[in-house]
Amino acid sequence: MSKNVKILRGTSFKFGDDISTDLIAPGRLFHLRSNLPELAKHVLEDADPEFSRKVKPGDFVVGGKNFGLGSSREHAPAIIKLAGVGAVLAKSFARIFFRNSINVGLPVLVCDTDKIEEGDELEILLSRGIIRNNTRNIDLKFNPLPEVMIKILNDGGLVGHIKKNRGFNL
Amino acid sequence: MGKTISEKIISEHAGRSLKSGDISVVDIDLVMSQDGTGPLAVSQIEKMGFDSVKNPEKSIFFIDHAAPSPRRELSNSHSVLRNFSKRTGAILSDVGQGICHQVLVENYVCPGDIVIGGDSHTCTSGALGAFATGMGSTDIAVGYTLAKTWLKVPDTIKVNFNGMLNEGVYAKDIIIYLIGKITSDGATYKAIEFGGEVSDRMDMDGRFTISNMAVEAGAKTGIFNSDGITRTYLEKRDRSGCFKSIYADEDALYEKVIDIDCRIIEPMVSQPHTVDNAIPVIDLEKIMVDQVFIGTCTNGRLSDLRVAADILKGRKVAEGVRLLVVPASKEIYIEAIREGLIEIFIESGAAIQNPGCGPCVGIHQGILADGEVCLSTQNRNFKGRMGNPDAFIYLSSPATAAWSAVKGYISDPREAG
User: Fold this and answer.
1) I want to staple B115 with a disulfide (CB 3.0 to 4.6 A). Which of A123, B30, B160, B290 is the partner?
2) Which residue of A has its CA nearest to B33?
3) What was the ipTM of the complex prediction?
4) What residues in B contact A92, CB-CB < 8 Å?
């Protein structure tokens, strides 16, 4: 295997359909938006109160359809990333959440998450588009990202892209 | 092949002919954020190594979500926006001016513009025939500094609201009905163009309500043609110079066309905890309410307040119910005072709060207790939205909200007479 193939390894935390940004980063914690490490301690709290204590660096958030619907708050993907999550997998994503995730450098992958259960051990080969479910011995494919988003991700997010190019170079 | 409104507007701002699916860097006309997303945008601008905005007179910061500030951390975030605006010449819309989306349509947005905003309901401005869409703080930071963004030209769903509206049925009811049909991700990544006789006859306030909620079906934007009604709205605001006729070509290619006969639509509510959990009020069991909220970027406009005041005039809010009324902007507030609407609300037992987002975002001004039920004219009823994940939010039109406040339970406004 080429050493360029970036592999993410971790455990699955399974959530349902329509996980809103209010469940990820609730408005009642609006005052913590200027303190992302503190806000990250509450990530996804209203969907699973234990999540932020259980999650380990590299683990995966696995949702159903329409993950991240709702507000434009970039704080939502930012604190998922800050909590150490390696990638979010879902059947589909809401538009702004998806774009924000790329901008903050959080991989968001569209795949059939019915084939993943809570606690499954996963290996993700990012550049090959493959998710290996080692608990169930199955391989899942994920849709490749649009080229502009790969460019932004490769520059470490949108801030890195603009800094490097002094503007857009998509 | 003809073009949709999105294809036309984005092509013009890219300087070349584009069709749905194309990706391009485009010039933007307006960029804005609010106190929830602006502070992060400012810190991203600094991280990129900038300390200026490209077009100060087209760059706006709104303080509306937690306005006035209920706590120290937020006061400090507000200071960040005030200081940055002062330093760069960007426009600041401070406490009391109103909700970003309402102030934008009143004073800044023109047909044919591209507007990006650090708030998901930026799509509200689509009612003026603009391409307006919500983005996160980093995209907005780039918008402030470069006056550019990148966009994928969306596919478009054409929604025709045909027929006529029944008594007691408003723009809010038909958009809740639509979202119930197509679901919360029925238009994800897509633009919705609204047409049909009902849309064509609808006043701007109704159009704003509908465009505002396009994002609740996942849409990137929700657009109306700009027409005589748009022109009159702008003229009344001394902005006739910015009118431009915006419409799709006859042979534009739509991903699909949805025809809705509005004569079958009755007053609607969205039940907890998703907007697409829609049901006619008359099919709902008896739901007692603890709080009723009339306001927001969805339904805090003058015509909304008139409808609510008409129902509340000479009546009292039911015992045990709290009615909160929040005009969407300073202008609406002043006009509501002139017309005597505010007095009617107060006489009925309502509490009036200053223009802003009010309790919709769950920060302040009406957080629900455990197990409480709120009927609100806002756009979103997600679990935890109003500050408590153990509370229950229903959504409706201002008419249904006002009548329910009188009855004490969610009630059909046609009974109000």
Assistant:
1) B30
2) A72
3) 0.95
4) 185, 188
